[in-house]
Amino acid sequence: MNRSIPCVLMRAGTSRGPFFLREWLPDGDEARDQALIGAIGASDPLQLDGVGGGSTLNSKVAIVSRSSQPGCDIDYLFAQVGVGHRSVDTRPNCGNMLSGVAPFAIEQGLIAAKDGTTSVRVYNVNTGSRIDVTVRTPGGRVTYEGDARIDGVAGTAAPILLNFLDAWGAVTGHIFPTGKRIDTIDGTEVTCIDAAMPLMIVRASDLGVTGREKPAALDANTALLERLEILRLEAGRRMGLGDVSNSVIPKPVLVSKGEASGSITSRYFTPRKCHASHAVTGAIGVASAFALPGTVASGLAREPGRHSLVVLHPAGQIDVEVELKGSADAATVERAALVRTARKMMQGDLHLPDYVFSRPEAQDAGSSDLQRALTIIVPTRAGGGNDTMARIIAAKLGPLLGQEVLVDNRAGANGAVASEYVAGSAPDGHTLMFGYVGTHAMNPALQKLGYDPVHDFAPVGLVGSSPTLMVTHPDTGAPDLHTLIARLKGAPRSFSYASAGDGTPPHFAAELFQLSSGTSMASATYEGAAPAIGDTVNGRSQIMFPSLFTACPFIRAGQLRALAVAGPSRLEGLPGVPTLAELGVPGVDVVQWYGLFAPSGTPAATIDRLNRALNEVLADPEIVERFERHGARAEPGSADALGQRMQADLARWRQVVAQAELAPRESRQMALD
């Protein structure tokens, strides 16, 4: 694998990133993506080991080649690389990066420049749409100097005209992929639109904000971000995009009234952080929703023809010219055009680190060489208890092993996505899984999965354990357990519980509680504990059964109230909280344990070395104190001890499933039954 590749670093619109000819990158999508991860430095949130800037705006890549499409000059594939996690998403398009594609292609000899201006028809591979791009080329050479100014970028530059020809419905096949111009998701009206970029547009006022706040203020509004993400996940499902928890589309947008009849104010999210200015493709989508009737963003009724509209954003505005055809419900957008600028910053060779290639050339199966990076796959999204514990361990393991230890979040299917990935990885000690009772006992006991927790994994060692609590929102929940049970028996399903997914500890604990107490609660299912507890904190769900490790910070802050311990005894850190059994609800005993697993077939010598390093980490007083401070207990031990605990719990939960007649429910990202 070539570790040194040509690269051009460009500022394009209000984004920045490396530009590559396709031939410069490795063949095959997997090798290509690993190269992009290394180029950007995706593994580190600050992206210190790559050319990224620690933000989604600076973690973008443009890949350019001669077009294979009739009538088009060049193909443009956009890639959004992860920030702090090794991921590459090629589903969205980026209009800002698009503004650098034609100048790059001309300078690389793919297009012959004309004297004055050169027009290039670009085919966007991500969305299957065409864009005409006009670049200034005096004397047959690209110039970046000019008097055009775009908000969010200092100085002036040569104007680059982007004319979007057929971006409406490019990803989903329909401009309104749900078949409606307004959908109602959990009581909130949204417009799901596919116009250059799939968007979920919401009125800012419907979420309790003005829509004119600065990005930093919106980013600090945790409840707003969590609410937006819940709406976005359901919007993605309704738009036919499937599970979008690990995708950047659809992008959520807050809209509010503009300064004049031809303007609209927009706050565009990427998707979990407010854009410092605005994406070009997002501006096309917002302007389309603004121009068309019947959406949450609709402005004045407009006649067919061309209209100059303004999208106001935190750094200024984007002027968009749209051409409408038809009127009323039959109105459609035929084209949209706007001006961007770009600047070439650097050209040369980019040197990629060896560790990014996670599937290197085959090695001797018995080799215990651990000099390459070790990746710990976490089966949940960043921010939850599993992720936090894995990162604590990873930071200490690296120096002991003499290699870099990375954490890679691969959420989905209640841990099955990560489990299947690790089970199918090379058994060479470079890919481990941060498994837990959910992935290796509960979920396999509940349903048939694409992996076997016993035969597909080699236990490395137990990390620790944390008891399970029953918590409630202090305002919208019940003051105590007896009151809760009385209210539920008087009005079944009047309270909802948040679950981290079918086959996870919060799900099992809630089901056992309902069986033992003779009550029925509504359920809201999420992809992991982080969004589930977030919705409990903001009051959308009233009950949850998280681990103490997950709940501890919120209990200390007074954002959650602990009602009971779902275990055999009271907790030292919460002596005033009784057990469910003490309160008359026996049989709810859920302890969450966590452990490291390698793929089956990993050499015994490798397992032993990893186990010794893990146990040394778990004996570190600092780690012991950090675990205890968050309500967990470090539990060093042998690999066999983890295997025995896993098999004992697997047998136990299979018996519980059979006796309680539990069955998996259809996955719901958010939906109060």
What's the SSE blueprint?
Layout: E1 4-12, E2 15-21, H1 29-40, E3 60-66, E4 74-81, E5 88-89, H2 95-98, H3 101-107, E6 116-124, E7 129-137, E8 160-164, E9 183-185, E10 188-194, E11 198-203, H4 215-219, H5 222-238, E12 251-257, E13 263-268, H6 280-291, E14 305-313, E15 316-325, E16 332-340, E17 342-351, E18 374-378, H7 385-401, E19 405-409, H8 416-423, E20 431-436, H9 437-446, E21 457-467, E22 469-472, H10 481-490, E23 496-499, H11 505-517, E24 522-525, H12 529-537, E25 543-544, H13 548-556, E26 561-565, E27 591-599, H14 604-618, H15 621-629, E28 633-634, H16 639-660
Parallel strand pairs: 2-3, 4-6, 11-12, 13-14, 18-19, 18-20, 23-24, 23-25
Antiparallel strand pairs: 1-2, 1-17, 3-4, 4-5, 6-7, 7-8, 8-16, 9-10, 10-11, 12-13, 14-15, 15-16, 20-27, 21-27, 21-28, 22-25, 22-26
Helix pairs in contact: 5-12, 7-14, 9-16
